[in-house]
Specification:
The complex is a heterodimer of chains A (232) and B (508). Chain A has 232 residues and is an alpha/beta fold. Chain A folds into 2 domains: 121 residues, Response regulator (Rossmann fold, 3-Layer(aba) Sandwich); 96 residues, Winged helix-like DNA-binding domain superfamily/Winged helix DNA-binding domain (Arc Repressor Mutant, subunit A, Orthogonal Bundle). Chain A contains 8 helices and 12 strands. In chain A, the strands form 3 sheets. Chain A has a 5-stranded parallel beta sheet, with helices on both faces. A 4-stranded antiparallel beta sheet of chain A has the order 6-7-8-9, with helices on one face. Chain A has a 3-stranded antiparallel beta sheet with strand order 10-12-11. Chain B has 508 residues and is an alpha+beta fold. Chain B folds into 3 domains: 122 residues, no CATH class; 130 residues, Beta-Lactamase, CATH 3.30.450.40; 154 residues, Histidine kinase-like ATPase, C-terminal domain (Heat Shock Protein 90, 2-Layer Sandwich), CATH 3.30.565.10. Helices cover 57% and strands 15% of the residues of chain B. Chain B has 12 helices and 13 strands. In chain B, strands 3-2-1-6-5-4 form a 6-stranded antiparallel beta sheet. In chain B, strands 8-10-11-13-12 form a 5-stranded mixed beta sheet. A two-stranded antiparallel sheet of chain B has the order 7-9. In chain B, helix 1 runs antiparallel to helix 2. The longest helix of chain B is centred in the middle third of the chain and has 68 residues. Chain B starts with a helix and ends in a 6-residue tail after the last strand. The relative contact order of chain B is 0.05. Classes of the chains: A alpha/beta (232), B alpha+beta (508). At the A-B interface, helix 1, helix 5, helix 8 and strand 11 of A face helix 8, helix 9, strand 7, helix 10 and helix 11 of B.
């Protein structure tokens, strides 16, 4: 009873977690294959058509970061890192190392499915090369052509810098962008890692698009890591 | 100093006597020569020989010079006609006198110079040997006191006195006792009476020595601090000449090098040990967090699936729900314990950065909303962006814990609100979390932030309240240099938790 044609590779050494993830995937109607080691994961990747990978960083044979690096040498497939490591630095390095998303254990099945759906949408976008001119999330809409932003169908006046930031988030909708990568994209390489300017810019942008900046609906802060534009 | 000039005087008297004896002898030989009718030239040569011997024995330019003049006048007085006067009949003698004086001067100067160089070389050699012996022994030393012992042995041997050494410890403070060479193979430890005084005195001087009641103290300078002092008994130190002082300095320098080397080896070993410990601790924390999170993941996920598989009115649904709730609670406990161990160790400095208050609160609320969606939390933050130096992850934990606490004591639908306002007068930011719950009993108030103090005894067995969360809040806030307090609300039921964070004057 597959609702989806995509195949998901679950790389996880803990058998209980593997069972739970697989059950959740089956419940949603996904096809999946599993691997318990990094070696096994790489073997499965070359022998079977895999669309999305769920990758645990703590593998028995070698570090999940190595798998991530190897896969990124030849594939752009969405990779969601699942890890019990809760260090911001590791999260950031996994994201900057090419992971599309990061889930910290323990997580709920609902959370996992939401992330997989976001990844799927990215997968479709990759296949479909026609760039979309208008994107929207809830009442927030961006027009890349005219460089305009609308909130609830009303135009929002935003500065060029704010537009750059928002369009970057829209281009990576649903993905966590690390503060380091945002600074590099918006301010350019060589600006350093001073996050204060980004925080100020983000605050200014939020005041224009969020009802309450402390309870954001669109741009979520991942403390210590970066920002994410929600994707419904 | 008077003793030294005394000894100089004595030596000079010796030299004068020596010179007189030599010249008397030379004059005697001269008379014999005259008696057997040798030519005058031989007598001149005898006088030159006398000058040479004087210069050799006295090793002094001055005496060489005096001897040269004396030789000429003696010859003139005793052997040139008219005898026993300083006048001459034959003007040819004038030439003889001049030649004689010049020759005597040149030879005496050369002689005393070569004699001096030989002596200096000998002295140098002795010095080098002493220092070589010292450094040779120092390399075999086992610890600082061993080094001190070897040094005072060598110094005592070299200067034939009972030298002593007072070592300073790692903190640069003098030890209680010092080591003194008592006899050839015997060292004793003696109490230091005025250790602090010695230290203060030494700080004033950079070179040279300090004069005490019993000893002269020479500091041993290490690369960073004074490592100790070498003490030379007063009676010996007073009569030391310049070259001896120089030798002593060199020996002290060698000792300082050895002590320095020893200290740095010690330090390196210590820091290596610390690194190993730190790595071990980090690995342990990592393993714990990994090993606890992974099974929790399974429990939470599986119970969630079970809830999905059953109807809401099925008793199994409620059971699965309980499993999930408890697992969630266990999860927050794990997070808190990990944060606490990280903090209480004290070594891990806070990763303070300028963070936007609204983002940290947003993160905490996002976290709570995932767990307790039935609660609506009101947020009031200032319109202006507020950047506060903090470790965002830890402050997020504080807010989560306080909101968790509020939720535990408040029914859904009742007010829970969080307010942030800058307090310009104290240069701090105030976070207030209010609820309309049951409030805190007055008797519990003083203990509320204590570890493992469970508020409301009846709750302890319901699995939702060892007071760890609040204790962690206090630890984190204090570590930031802030304050936390709790009290009941004045405007009706409910409690109020207030914590402040300093702005550190980075912003107005």
């Amino acid at each position: 009873m597959s609702n989806y044609n995509e195949c998901i590779l679950v790389v996880e050494d803990d058998i209980q977690i593997q069972n739970f993830i697989c059950y959740a995937l089956k419940n949603e109607g996904f096809r999946y294959i599993t691997a318990g080691t990094g070696e096994g994961a790489l073997n499965k990747l070359v022998s079977e058509p895999v669309d999305i990978m769920l990758l645990d960083l703590g593998l028995p044979d070698f570090d999940g970061m190595e798998v991530l690096k190897k896969v990124r040498e030849w594939s752009e497939m969405p990779i969601i890192v699942v890890s019990a490591r809760d260090q911001d630095k590791e999260k950031a390095s996994a994201l900057d190392g090419g992971a599309d998303d990061y889930l910290t254990k323990p997580f709920s099945a609902t959370e996992l499915m939401a992330r997989i759906r976001v990844a799927l949408r990215h997968l479709y976008k990759q296949g479909n090369h026609i760039p979309q001119v208008v994107l929207s999330v809830g009442g927030l809409q961006i027009d890349f052509d005219k460089r305009l932003v609308y909130l609830d169908a009303k135009e929002v006046h935003i500065t060029p810098m704010e537009y750059n930031l928002l369009s970057l988030l829209f281009r990576n909708i649903g993905k966590v962008l690390t503060t380091g990568s945002i600074i590099k994209e918006v301010w350019g390489i060589g600006y350093g890692t001073d996050t204060q300017a980004l925080r100020a810019l983000m605050a200014a942008l939020r005041r224009k698009i969020e009802k309450n900046p402390a309870k954001p609906r669109y741009i979520i802060t991942e403390i210590g890591v970066g920002y994410r534009l929600v994707d419904e | 100093m008077t003793e030294q000039s005394n000894s100089n005087l004595q030596e000079n008297v010796h030299r004068i006597l020596l010179m007189v004896v030599i010249f008397v002898a030379a004059s005697g030989v001269g008379y014999i020569f005259r008696y057997v009718d040798f030519p005058d030239t031989n007598i001149v040569v005898i006088y030159l020989l006398a000058v040479l011997i004087t210069a050799w024995l006295t090793r002094s330019f001055a005496f060489g010079f005096i001897a040269s003049i004396l030789a000429t006048f003696s010859f003139n007085y005793f052997f040139a006609e008219p005898l026993f006067t300083f006048s001459v009949n034959d003007p040819n003698y004038i030439i003889t006198f001049i030649t004689m004086t010049v020759t005597a001067l040149v030879t005496s100067t050369l002689t005393s110079h070569s004699k001096r160089s030989a002596l200096a070389a000998q002295e140098k050699e002795a010095e080098t040997k002493a220092i070589y012996n010292l450094t040779n022994h120092l390399t075999a030393a086992k610890d600082i006191h061993d080094i001190a012992g070897i040094a005072i042995f060598a110094i005592s041997d070299c200067f034939s006195c009972k030298a002593a050494c007072l070592c300073f410890d790692e903190n640069g403070l003098p030890e209680q006792t010092f080591i003194q060479q008592a006899a050839k193979e015997k060292r004793i430890r003696r109490e230091v009476t005025n250790a602090q005084e010695i230290k203060c005195q030494l700080e004033g001087i950079r070179t040279g020595f300090e004069i005490g009641t019993e000893f002269y103290d020479w500091p041993i300078y290490g690369r960073e601090s004074i490592l100790g002092i070498i003490r030379i008994p007063k009676e010996k130190a007073q009569i030391m000449n310049e070259s001896q002082t120089r030798l002593l300095r060199s020996m002290i320098e060698s000792t300082a090098l050895a002590m320095d080397r020893f200290r740095s080896v010690e330090q390196r070993m210590q820091s290596r040990e610390e690194i190993v410990k730190e790595r071990y601790r980090a690995n342990l924390l990592r393993a714990i967090s990994h090993d606890l999170r992974t099974p929790l993941s399974g429990i939470i996920g599986t119970s969630e699936m079970l809830m999905d598989m059953t109807e809401a009115n099925d008793p199994r649904h409620a059971l699965a729900g309980n499993i999930q709730k408890d697992a969630n609670w266990l999860h927050s406990l794990v997070e808190n314990i990990l944060n606490l161990t990280r903090l209480q160790d004290g070594k891990l400095a806070l990763k303070k950065e300028m963070e936007a208050v609204e983002e940290v609160i947003g993160g905490a609320i996002n976290h709570i909303a995932g767990r307790s969606p039935e609660y609506e939390i009101e947020v009031n933050v200032p319109d202006d962006l507020l950047l506060v130096p903090m470790d965002a992850k830890l402050i997020e934990q504080v807010i989560i814990n306080l909101l968790d606490n509020a939720i535990r004591h408040t029914k859904p639908g009742n007010e829970i609100c969080i307010t942030v306002e800058p307090a310009a007068d104290t240069n701090t930011v105030k976070f207030v979390i209010r609820d309309r719950g049951t409030g805190i009993r007055e008797s519990d108030l003083p203990y509320i932030f204590q570890i493992f103090y469970a508020v409301h005894a009846k709750h302890t067995d319901s699995g939702s309240g060892i007071g760890l969360g609040l204790a962690i809040c206090e630890t984190i806030v204090k570590a930031h240099g802030g304050d936390i307090e709790a009290h009941n609300r004045m405007d009706g039921p409910g409690s109020e938790f207030i914590f402040t964070l300093p702005m550190e004057g980075n912003r107005k």
